[in-house]
Amino acid sequence: MEPVWQVHHGLTLSLYYDDPDGNRLEFQVEALPDGEASRYISGPEFAANPVGVSFDPDALLARFEAGASEAELLAFVAGPMSPIPPLQH
User: Fold this and answer.
1) Bridge-partner residues for 24, per DSSP?
2) How many other CB atoms are there within 10 angstroms of residue 19's CB atom?
């Protein structure tokens, strides 16, 4: 099963899946250390892009397998706002 949307929200790194009943499920990991979420959502990066940026899960896996640190894998890279895909019914 392939995700319908893969997005780094800044706060979380998320994969979204649509199930056959039209529900969208999100699987996520927190991308910021404890206590930094409030600072982030009050800052200019979040104001400029409250949705987040797309990422390639296969490229992320390759970086993990090559030994990238957790901090490197979870780091937010600025980019264009990710489009939110419509729900599939």
Assistant:
1) 18
2) 10
Give the type of residue at 62. Answer: A
**What pTM value is reported for the model?**
0.90
Reported residue count of the chain is: 89
How far apart are the C-alpha atoms of 51 and 41, rounded to whole Å?
11
- In whole angstroms, give the CA distance from residue 27 to residue 87: 16
Which residue from 73, 66, 89 is spatially nearest to 19, judged by alpha carbons? 89
Q: Could you list the pLDDT tens digit for every one of the 89 residues in the chain?
A: 899 999 999 999 999 999 999 899 999 999 998 889 999 999 999 999 999 999 999 999 999 999 999 999 999 998 999 999 998 76
From CA 82, how far away is CA 73, in angstroms rounded?
18
The tokens of 46 are what? 């979040």
